[in-house]
Amino acid sequence: MRRWIITVTAVLLGVLCLFAGGEKGVAYAADEAAENAFSGDVGMLRQDGGNYVMQVTVENRGEDFTGTVQVIFENSSMRGNCAYNTEITLPAQGRKQYTLTVTERAVDTVRGLCALNFLDEEGEVVQSLTLRNVFGNAVQGIPVGVLSDDEYELTYLDAGGEDFNIQGMSYPLKLVELDDGNLQGYLDGLYFLIIDRFNVSSLSEENIQAIQDWVKNGGWLLIGTGAYGEQTLSGFDEDFLDIEVISVSDPPAENLLTVNADRYGYYYYYVIGAEIDFAQMAVAELDYYSQQDCYESSENPFVCSIIGDGAAAVFFCSLGEKELQKLEDYMILYIYSEIAYQSDSYHSMGGNSDLEYDGQRALAFIDSRNTNVDFGFLKVLIGIYVVLVGPVLYLILRKCRKKEWYWVGVPALGLIFIGAVFFLGNGARVNETKVYSVTTQRADSNQEDTYFLAYRSGIKPWKVRLEDRYEVAGPGWSGYWYNNRNGSGVNDYYYMVGNDSEGLSVGIKPVENFESAYLYAGGKTQAKGSLSATGLSWENDGSYYGTFRGAVTNSTSFDLDYMAVWADSYIMVFADVKAGETLELQQALKEGRCVYQSPADMYGDLLYSMVSIYSNSVDSGYEQDDMAALFIGLGLADEARPAGQDNAVIAGVIRDYEKAVADKCSETSYGCLYSYAEWR
Asked: What residues make up the domain containing 396?
């Protein structure tokens, strides 16, 4: 009987094991299906200034999914990979597309490698896909919008399908026909917009404003004139484009181009190569002298005006002229490349290693100036210890009949006390999130850029929530000690950017308990006015500094703690320039308001003279950390300086500026507003 019971029990256990094994197999199959439920792709839609707008496509063949889609872009330089996290709800058999804007510092466009990860609500990776060449294969062409009543005459402007090189990448130009109905739908994706033989006033007010905003935010506008000049120039606001047609030649006749062919480069670039008869073209004489930041090209028949972060090229003739259709493809590409190069938004794409390194040093200097241990206060604490703690300890030891311990205990406790004060004083700054930010903005623009140093102790990983005005974030200036942090795996990352219902956040995934990062954020804000100048000139009078003359006006609503005027090889910095104040330079110099002046051929030369990196105790007559913030603003203004013009930079720094971080944390914030002015 006992043997029978054992036998039956063994059989039952075997059956149960079979069922258990079957269930285990089903669960494994389900897990395997879940791991292969997702598919997706990442491709570049367009460039937006120095950033990249990427389109992410995800599909779900499994059950309903709520979690995070994580796109990790490889950066093979020293900066480390960057992960962009987006909260998403993807139903079963569902498909979604969304866009994200990636900073140029966050990616390696040459290799174009990235990982597309699907994370559950606990942050665990459910499935991972590795994608290649997401920056190369995704782009079919560079879109060029065309607004014209005679589009057929402009088809030659696609340069015959020849590639146009932009930031080291080459793609063919693709013409897109536009009208009042589809304009805004295409506008954000365009690099160039051509308006020729078209009445701009016929557009809706919303579309005209959209074009003006698009240019100010980095778009490149080409306008043909000639016999249609008054129509194509109509409709725009005067403060956007103040150019008028004075007269138009009646062909065949001599005109601006035939008389000055060599001046515009046509004798060398076009006349010989294409045998263009300029006398057969209707050529407009333009009044553009009141247009700011405007110059006459010596290479192409247009005047170019830098407008915000973009530019507009207004031609002396219609681009639909049959004579221009004789142009060689390389000549057409040159038209696009000149306006692109002259635009400060394009000019800034090239990067500046000196700016990156020196700006990083200056931002770290602001940090160190605000977080050094106050040794003066430490001396006070030591004095209190000697006067109070020492005698009290002696009395206690005397009462305990341990007086012989006094000469051992007092020094030992003193060292412990001093060490604790030093540790707490130096470490208090990392008990919470710390941020040191410098926000730069061309005063009359609505675009701002913030570079900041942030860190947090004891939290891994960590992030800071940005104010809602920011639209893009990512790595800032490179930290040279980040090299080889991520190994060779594209699935690992150091920087991270999050986008959820609360807005944008940025942070790092440190490998140690405490670590900092240089970060960047860009977004839209209100224009702040202008910093203008009249009569700026510099005279070499044989002295070390020479004589700098003229007047500068602070037409912003901010009192500037310091304001710099930098022209060519000379710079002056003035203290405490009030909102609305006009400063006559030589008079201010006599009044002692000039706190710094020096010859300055290059931006990098200013680092060690303006900011005492190696000696914080220098009695310079100005606040060193304020000057470091101004130094950063000058560098970014210099990098974005309109090409082709010898402009002076006017920049002012404001303490306690608008915060970059929305979290409750300790933030030291500076603002730098800058403008450009003519000088002679």
From this structure: 374-428
Q: 231 and 147, same structural domain?
A: yes
Closest CA to 85 of 45, 47, 119, 111: 119
Does residue 597 contact residue 620 with C-beta atoms inside 8 Å?
no
The pTM (predicted TM-score) of the whole model is 0.60
Domain identity same for 264 and 288 = yes
Q: In whole angstroms, what is the distance from residue 484 CA to residue 435 CA? A: 25
Cα distances (angstroms) measured from residue 56 to each of 103, 157, 394, 476 = 16, 31, 72, 23
With respect to residue 166, please indicate whether it lies within any of the assigned structural domains. Answer: yes
In a domain, 543, yes or no: no
Distance CA 193, CA 190 (A): 7
Please state, in angstroms and rounded to a whole number, the distance separating the CA atoms of residues 452 and 358. Answer: 14
- Burial class of 408 by CB neighbour count within 10 A (0 to 12, 13 to 18, 19+): exposed
Model pLDDT, residue 511: 65
* Residue stretches of the chain with pLDDT short of 50: 1-33, 137-139, 266-269, 271-273, 344-353, 372-374, 426-430, 479-488, 615-617, 644
| Pairing between β-strand 38-48 and β-strand 244-248 as defined by DSSP bridges | unpaired
CA–CA separation, 416 and 271 (whole Å): 85
Parallel, antiparallel, or unpaired: how do β-strands 666-677 and 434-442 relate?
parallel
Is residue 643 in some structural domain? Answer: no
What pLDDT, on the 0 to 100 scale, is given for residue 349?
36
For residue 147, the model assigns a pLDDT of 95
Specify the pLDDT at position 76: 63
In the DSSP assignment, the letter for residue 106 is G
In contact, 141 and 158? CB cutoff 8 Å:
no
How many independent structural domains does the chain possess? 3
Q: Are 420 and 429 in contact (CB under 8 A)?
A: no
Residue with tokens 């933030």: 667
pLDDT at 40: 92
Residue 427's contacts (CB-CB under 8 Å, 6 or more residues apart) are 457
